[in-house]
Amino acid sequence: MNATNTQDTRALKAASRRLARRIALRAILQKVAYSAAVFLLILALTAPAQTPAPQKQTWKPVAFAIIKYNDEAPKSWNLYHTEKKGLLLLRLWKRCLLVDMKEEEVYDVDPGTVKEAGENVEWSLASKPAEPIETGEWKSRDIGPTHRVRFRLGKNGNIVEMQIPLMPNGKPAY
């Protein structure tokens, strides 16, 4: 009987140890799962939301503007503005130019990215090229009720002149 008792005791201790290991393992797994859930929740709350595709801005025509190309009126042109002052979009024949008046820079914009919407156009500033076109001889001054900007495309390129109307107080409207 003594040998059977010893075997039963050993079996009971082994079963008890297995049960204790299962309980300990279950407790560890619960802690890991809880920690992972908390981590994912914090990550979801603090991670910035994915930015949607850049929205196209509506550019409206500049009323009463005058454009000259090599001191002559081009046959096909239009000048557009957005809410952000100092940025103009010039459509000259099939070419589009983004003119940054503050930085005195001109960017060659892909005309395929500019979409017509009635008399307005839609284009996103996120599509702006990284590097501006080389512009020389940038001249800007007020001439009566208009603001004249004149620049050369490239080192020895063509001259573009824009005459943009001013508000009655003399400040640029666009």
**Cα end-to-end separation:** 105 Å
Q: What sort of overall outline do the alpha carbons produce when their principal axes are compared?
A: rod-shaped
How many E-type strands? 11
Along the chain, the helix and strand elements come as HEEEEEEEEEEE
Report the structural category.
alpha+beta
In spatial order, strands of the major sheet run 6-5-4-3-1-8-7
**What is the C-alpha radius of gyration, as a whole number of Å?**
35 Å
Q: How many DSSP helices?
A: 1
The main β sheet shows up as:
7 strands, antiparallel
Write up this protein.
The chain is α+β, with helices and mostly antiparallel strands and 174 residues long. It folds into two domains: 1-47; 57-165, no CATH class. Helices cover 26% and strands 36% of the residues. The chain has one helix and eleven strands. The chain has one helix at residues 2-46; strands at residues 57-61, 66-69, 77-81, 87-92, 95-100, 105-109, 115-117, 120-123, 135-143, 146-153, 159-165. Strands 6-5-4-3-1-8-7 form a seven-stranded antiparallel sheet, with no helix packed on it. Strands 2-11-10-9 form a four-stranded antiparallel sheet, with no helix packed on it. A hairpin with a 2-residue loop joins strand 4 and strand 5. The longest helix has 45 residues, at 2-46. It is rod-shaped.
